[in-house]
UniProtKB/TrEMBL annotation:
Gene3D superfamilies: dinb family like domain. It holds the Pfam family DUF1569. InterPro entries: DinB/YfiT-like, DUF1569. This is DUF1569 domain-containing protein.
C-alpha cells in the first residue's frame, strides 16, 4: 500500500495535483477543483493536529470496526460521506489552494511519522502514524481520481 510518508508517493501525488486545472470537472461529487484542494488541505490539518473535529456518534459506535477501510488497498467509494468540519462549500482560489496543499504535503512527508497527530480521527478513532500515512495517500488518490488525474 502506498504511504504519504514515502517520498516517492508524495512526489507522485504532488505531480498529479499539478496536473489539475481550475476548470477540471469532477467525475462525481459536488466540489469543484479548488474546493477539493481546500478539503484535502483541511484533512492534512486534522492529520497534523492543527485542526480538531469531534467524533460522530456513528464513528464512536462502528469506527474501530471499519477503520481498515481508511488504509487498506481497496478504493474509497464514490460519494462517501465526509467529516462535516472539512466539507468545503464556499468558493476558493484555485492557485492558492493548490500551493497550500502541496506545501502541507511536502512538510508532512518531510517531518515523518513522528509529527503525525496522536488525536483520534473524527470517524475511525485512534490511528497509528502508519495508518495515517496510508489513509492520507488513499484519500488524496481518491480525490485526484475524482478529477481525472
Amino acid at each position: 500500500m502506498n504511504n504519504i510518508f514515502a517520498k516517492k508517493h508524495t512526489d507522485e501525488i504532488v505531480t498529479r495535483i499539478k496536473q489539475l486545472r481550475p476548470d477540471s470537472q469532477p467525475l462525481w461529487g459536488k466540489m469543484n477543483a479548488a474546493q477539493m484542494l481546500a478539503h484535502c488541505s483541511a484533512f492534512q490539518d486534522i492529520a497534523t493536529g492543527n485542526m480538531t473535529s469531534s467524533r460522530s456518534w456513528l464513528g464512536v459506535v462502528i469506527g474501530k470496526f471499519v477503520k481498515p477501510m481508511f488504509y487498506n488497498d481497496k478504493s474509497v467509494p464514490q460519494n462517501m460521506s465526509t467529516i462535516p468540519d472539512i466539507m468545503i462549500t464556499d468558493e476558493r482560489e484555485f492557485q492558492k489552494e493548490r500551493e497550500t496543499l502541496i506545501q502541507k504535503l511536502i512538510a508532512f512527508q518531510h517531518h515523518g511519522p513522528e509529527k503525525c497527530t496522536a488525536q483520534t480521527h473524527p470517524f475511525f478513532g485512534k490511528l497509528s502514524p502508519e495508518e495515517w500515512g496510508k489513509g492520507i495517500y488513499k484519500h488524496l488518490d481518491h480525490h485526484l481520481k475524482q478529477f481525472g488525474v
